[in-house]
Amino acid sequence: MAEKNAPAQQRASFDYELYEGDPDHLRTVVATPNQATPWIDPAALKLRHRIGRGPFGDVWLATHHQSSEEHDRYHEVAVKMLHPIKEDHMQKFLDKFEEIFLKSRQLRGVCWLHGITIISGKICIAFKFYEGSVGDRIARLKGGKLSLPDVLRYGIGLAIGIQELHSLGILVLNIKPTNFLIDDHDQVVIGDFGIPYLLMGIPLPDSNFAIRLGTPSYMAPEQWEPEVRGPITFETDTWGFGCSIVEMLTGVQPWLGKSAEEIYQSVVMKQEKPLVPAGLPPAVENVINGCFEYDLRNRPLVADILHAFESSQNAVYSDGEWISLESRKVPEKLSGKCFSTWFLSKDLLQVGDTVRSRKSPNSCKPQSMVVPEGTIVGLEKDTDRDGFVLVRVPRVHDPLRINVSTLERVTTGLAVGDWVRLMEETNKHSSIGIIHSIRRDGNAAVGFLGLETLWEGHSSKLQLAEPYSVGSFVRLKANVFTPRFEWPRKKGGTWSTGRIAQTHPNGCLVVKFPGRFVFGNEPNSFLADPADVESVTFDSYPGLVGKYQHLEDYHWAARPLTIAFSVFTVMKFGIYVGKSMGAGIKRKGHNQIRGDGHAQDAQTAANSSWIPPPVANILFGEGPTATAR
């Protein structure tokens, strides 16, 4: 492996300080002649002692010897020694690293990479050594809290670094204060440039480690099970950014004292969020709260975070003091439609775009659309998510003035949020997913159950699929005998029908079964592949019996209540019939007595003449009166 990747002798690098307009904040830059490969000869690295340990490996202080024709140089570097990876997957990691190596060297918000090597069968990544991190500074401070100006300043530097990595298509996934390195000028750079991202798709020997793509306290819900609750996207990094900012402001790590399993239960299952301290600038408070949206589509992008921090920093220092702690916040949701302001700001409309009225993501009923389809012919000045546009609609004479938050762009008949089916069937992932973005050239990014990241391809490979909404009922398709996930059965052995409680961004359905009666901790919530199920309504059930069976799907108490009601009805009907028959017999007997008259009296007298007086008195109410004793 070393022989395969060993390059020719390289010239030594050197450091210099870059002036960027502020003489008090010079940036240290490492200059190296063109380096064609990131490979470092293992003999050129001398490990000295371990200085840290993380979920992906150990960090060592080392010396990097660079030799050239003119002179030798020795650089003090930090070396990240990863946990063992199977040898047949090492080359895959090295190839991915090489793709980003030269690009990452041009980034100002990311630590300087020296290269990569293999020592004792372990991958080692060498980068410039920094004396401390934001995490170290928090630990040294009394109370652990950083001042608001420092938090904003560090936050801006971090947002720049993350945004630069995102521009290269690299996800960090391990954002935390101990990975925010501080240089000699108190400027912050990202020390972890995406090792979890490079490890994605590579089997790891430790199964516990394999289910995590970051540090538990800073991981977004989709990071725990990206193939099921994903996909992992740029918005995944904003969750870790929010956790880090909260720790800087409070001095307390999110979910402190909880195990990884307890954090999983809190973040993924219970959908709990870290507490954001009060008294922040409105823009910062709003954007940090947005970072903790459970649905990643409703989180802000790093560009939104950068804008909020920069605008708040200017406000803080504009008058030399902190102002407007109680300023009004921008609402996170608009019109109760489950869309955040961040979701709506991710696609700015342009003149010529085809648009339609935005559909509610959880609507089970058909909607009347103000704009079934139209074309934007004009934009108001400074149009943003709260602005208006002019839309020309067929068969309407004048263009309509419509708020942009109520419109969505349509490209090749598809829009963000549409359920689509991949035309080419595959066994690697579900064939049904949800569109996350679609460019004007027709290229789309889709979340599919079974994929850790977004599928990217042209919209010509997609077709619209049946949408699934929260609250609608679903059952397994007749041709599905082994569903992707466990699915409960009824007592008779047939598959149960459930109700959708949640949809994940990749189309994975969370289905609950109100028609099942469960005991104790028995689960009643199951995951479902949208390709395995179909929607059902009363109309889709044939006959009265089928409709009654669907009624039982609404709640387990439907059957016992129906039985109890039936028994009660039968008893009441029986009592009513009995009373009616008794009243009829009594009336008939009374009429017969009155109609016969004397004949009955004669007959009674004849009958009572030979019966003993006490008995006759009992039977006929007459006869000789008993003598008082």
TrEMBL record:
Write down the superkingdom of origin.
Eukaryota
Which PANTHER family has this protein been placed in?
E3 UBIQUITIN-PROTEIN LIGASE KEG-LIKE, OS06G0639500 PROTEIN
- Residue ranges for the region (Disordered) are 588-610
Residues annotated as transmembrane:
556-578
Report the source organism: Heracleum sosnowskyi
* The keyword Zinc is annotated on this UniProt entry: yes
Its name, as the record gives it, is E3 ubiquitin-protein ligase KEG
> Pathway involvement?
Protein modification; protein ubiquitination
List the biased-composition ranges (Polar residues). Answer: 601-610
PROSITE patterns, alphabetized:
PROTEIN_KINASE_DOM (PS50011)
Q: Does the keyword Chaperone apply?
A: no
Keyword tags: Membrane, Metal-binding, Repeat, Transferase, Transmembrane, Transmembrane helix, Ubl conjugation pathway, Zinc, Zinc-finger
**Which GO terms fall under molecular function for this chain's record?**
ATP binding; protein kinase activity
Q: What is the lineage of its organism?
A: Eukaryota, Viridiplantae, Streptophyta, Embryophyta, Tracheophyta
